[in-house]
Predict the structure of NOP2/Sun RNA methyltransferase 6.
Amino acid sequence: MSVFPIINLRPAVTEFLQSVFLNTEVLAAVGHQEAECRFQKLLSCLSHPPSYTCVRASTHLNSLKVVVNNCLCMPGYVVSPESKLSVPSHSLRAPDEADVEVCDLPFSCVLRPVKQLSSEVVVGAQCGSAVLRGAHVFAPGIIASPKYMKAGDVVSVFSDLEGKCTRGATSFQGKKAFVGNGVAQMDRSAIFCADEPAKGIGVRMVEPLYQSPSFDGVLPGLAFLQNLPSVVVGHVLGPRPGERILDMCAAPGGKTCHIAALMEDQGEVVALERIRNKIDRIRQNAQMLRLRSIKVYCFNSTQAVSSDPVQESEGPPFPPESFDRVLLDAPCSGLGQRPNMGSTWSLKEIRSYTPLQRKLFHAAVRLLKRGGVLVYSTCTVTLAENEELVAWALNTFPCLTLQPQEPHIGAEGMLGAGLSPEQLRLLQRFSPELSWDQTGTAAPLSCRANRDTIGFFIAKFLKN
Ligand SMILES: C[S@@+](CC[C@H](N)C(=O)[O-])C[C@H]1O[C@@H](n2cnc3c(N)ncnc32)[C@H](O)[C@@H]1O
């Protein structure tokens, strides 16, 4: 059900995305009306959160049964019998095929009726999207509040969709979306008139419009909050115990930890991340999940290939052909992320990722051993960062061939990059717009949870 207006993007970005979704190959295949309909659905579904919350069971520490039972007993969350039933069908197999390795418990993100109040706090679109994912409002996200707001006041929170509200305003009549009610934790003066910028929770959400289960700090060591396509990436990479794996863009380390867990913590997972203050998060996650095979380095992965082909060192740069498998979960324009009520990014910023992705890809291919597997993934929906990158890679590196993916629960690749039907079938694109607004569908919950995801893309290559 649509509650919010479509995602608010700059006109040039909307036009660009429209040209992607209505490209000549798509038009020839499905016609103008269907292509336009899919594009409009994309814009709608991006501003809404997925209806299901996915957690990955930490089966290297506990049996799946223990994890599932603990999850189902989480206080405050009622998991319907239907969800319980969906666990086996929603599961993926371990490399040895003996047991279920990971399960996704589709905790629903429930839309509920919440009455709007006369006291309004306005927050930025990014902050509004975080509230829809279960966060409180942090003080820096507040743009406007009632003139006499005091700590303890009950207020309605609105997201400023176009970034037009003036900081410090006492009211706002522009385009805004209601995201729920909360209790102010500080006076207005502490937010806008203090010497130091305000920190901490500004509004504690008590009645969010979407109630989503919070797994932050809950069930550590048992369940790891990770969206479904990201869980699929680890399995598609298919790491085995004893291998040496490179995760080129690792923070916050969700996929790094999954890879190490799939390897039963035997072997080596090298995690590189360019931004220093994100490194601790990878280490914390590895520690929480008791994974010792992960080695974390702050490093620019475009420079991760050593110019000295024989020099062996523990950390980067590495000699060519150092790794059995490489994951390139690339920095991207992030246009598949949900919920996203609005973005002020320019078209130039959106387009700036492709050159970086190609540079990283060059390094990935060089660092991979012959016979090794390279998985490329993004959380965006553009052709340039997905199917066109694949077409470029196949032209640039004749040693690479596309491989089938297991599991393959998303759609195939999108038309428009000149790839053949066989090549498109080997790609995996999670396209929530294809099933958006199919309310009242009779499909089992596990199928709906598989489709109602963020927008995501996965390609798997073998280096011959
Ligand atoms: C999509 S996120 C990775 C998410 C991560 N794989 C996970 O599952 O938790 C991309 C990451 O790549 C990092 N990054 C961007 N450019 C990089 C580079 N040149 N070298 C290494 N890391 C880079 C970003 O800082 C960001 O943390």
Observations:
- The chain is about 30% helix and 20% strand.
- The pocket of S-adenosylmethionine is lined by residues 230, 249-255, 272-275, 278, 300-302, 329, 331 (CB under 6 Å).
